[in-house]
TrEMBL record:
It comes from Rugamonas fusca. Belongs to the PRA-PH family. The gene is hisE. GO terms for biological process: L-histidine biosynthetic process. It is found in: Cytoplasm. Gene3D superfamilies: MazG-like. One of its GO terms (cellular component) is cytoplasm. It comes from the Bacteria. Keywords: Amino-acid biosynthesis, ATP-binding, Cytoplasm, Histidine biosynthesis, Hydrolase, Nucleotide-binding. Signal peptide: none annotated. This is Phosphoribosyl-ATP pyrophosphatase. One of its GO terms (molecular function) is ATP binding. Pathway: Amino-acid biosynthesis; L-histidine biosynthesis; L-histidine from 5-phospho-alpha-D-ribose 1-diphosphate: step 2/9. Its EC number is 3.6.1.31.
Length: 118
């Protein structure tokens, strides 16, 4: 299931300026050249666009737009992971680690933890 994530992550890695990426020809290299803030700005934009697409779909609009916006959001988070030398496999590993642990139970365990004032 993660093969496409790995392949896109490999392309993104190859687009780093240190790996010969060229901002003149590559969107990803252009983002890396602009730096962290540009990547974070895109993630904020894509997250907002995902929310708007979902609201439109709920109002009777085209639900497939949610797919496109999620793809944009996931793609830009892959760029962010690469910026910090992290991989999609590490995110999948974290999801696997959480598998079967209810979010409600997990949150309650945090509240019981010493020093957690939340
Ligand atoms: N999956 C994607 C992908 N998804 C979305 N995008 C780009 O992300 C941008 C999304 O921005 P918006 O929707 O806000 O559109 P925009 O107004 O054109 O964007 P901005 O000018 O505001 O940045 C668009 O330019 C899309 O083309 C992507 N660009 C690249 N990839 C993958 O990354 C690989 C490397 O791309 P390059 O580095 O460009 O060769 C590609 O082969 C693909 O596999």
């Amino acid at each position: 299931m993660s093969a496409i994530l790995d392949r896109v992550a490999d392309i993104i890695e190859s687009r780093k300026l240190a790996n010969g990426g060229d901002p003149a020809t590559s969107y990803v290299s252009r983002l890396f050249a602009k730096g962290d803030d540009a990547i974070l700005k895109k993630i904020g934009e894509e997250a907002t666009e995902t929310v708007m697409a979902a609201k439109d779909a709920r109002a009777g609009g085209d639900a497939s737009k949610v797919l496109y916006e999620c793809a944009d959001l996931w793609f830009h988070t892959l760029v962010l992971l690469a910026q910090f030398d992290l991989t999609p496999q590490q995110v999948l590993d974290e999801l696997a680690r959480r598998e079967g642990v209810s979010g409600i139970v997990e949150k309650a365990s945090r509240k019981d933890a010493p020093g957690d004032g939340a």
